[in-house]
């Protein structure tokens, strides 16, 4: 196999330490990323696609970059039952159908192998190609029983993981194991008297350790994606964010500055209200691109919101469907008197306790009992 010398190392003297600009190194790493994996919804593939070659260094517009990009981390988040796992299965089906190896890591909900095999069979019958007779043989499956198991597999991977010919790594879900080890602020504060911990420095470290673990995990996912040219797809759960918002808003459960920088593409899956005259609106989901090419999309545009349905053979985009009703953003009133803001302690729900998350403004919800197997 011919390999291009992107860094010009062949012209250097042997046994010499070579230095080169970081921009040249970035171009070399981006040049090794050759394509993307389709989501199974052409409209969503186009919405995820970077709008210009400048958004992805080393790429050209003519390159096949529709879908989930290799070499980057893509996040799917949404409430339970919205269709997150179904979309992840559709992306895995696209990779397996092309003869690529797929790594699937589950943290609670078992992989629906029967449905995946059915999707592969239906898709192979509909589109004949040169794929292997049994594409599911290229699926590598791991079950992470606990958060330490997941971190050990990703941060201290065994020899040969991930395989060199693997193209897609799916984690369903990346946030599923965190609530068991990091309780919500109210529960954590209630345990402090029993633990006997009074040192403020130690308490602050315990309050922030979730974000430290999240940062390490995000950095490692970026490293795996870049060094192995992997398309990493993480399924993230949701919780409610109140601080800094005009109303309660569903946000990714794993968040923070480092995690935000790790995510290259973010897609939100949800159900929403449709116009009353829409008769066949039952079962319609929406996939909204909220981050693309590492940049958050501040404006909600119709072309970034893709309606789709979940069927036996996977997911299918809907051509003509009115967009969901987008409520206008109301300005946050800053001049509110203290008497209007104060409430009694017993009137504030646990999900509104934000004292421990002042740095990020995230509200920790106790979502350990939620199951995301269907979505």
UniProtKB/TrEMBL annotation:
CDD domains: RecA-like. Residues 33-238 form the RecA family profile domain. Residues 348-361 have a biased composition (Acidic residues). GO terms for cellular component: Rad51B-Rad51C-Rad51D-XRCC2 complex; Rad51C-XRCC3 complex; replication fork. It comes from the Eukaryota. One of its GO terms (molecular function) is ATP binding. Keywords: ATP-binding, DNA damage, DNA repair, Hydrolase, Nucleotide-binding, Nucleus. InterPro entries: AAA+_ATPase, HR_Repair_Mediator, P-loop_NTPase, Rad51_C, RecA_ATP-bd. It is found in: Nucleus. The keyword Zinc does not apply. The keyword Ribosomal protein does not apply. Its main location: nucleus. One of its GO terms (biological process) is meiotic DNA recombinase assembly. Residues 321-375 are annotated as: Disordered. It holds the Pfam family Rad51. This is DNA repair protein RAD51 homolog 3. It comes from Aspergillus bertholletiae.
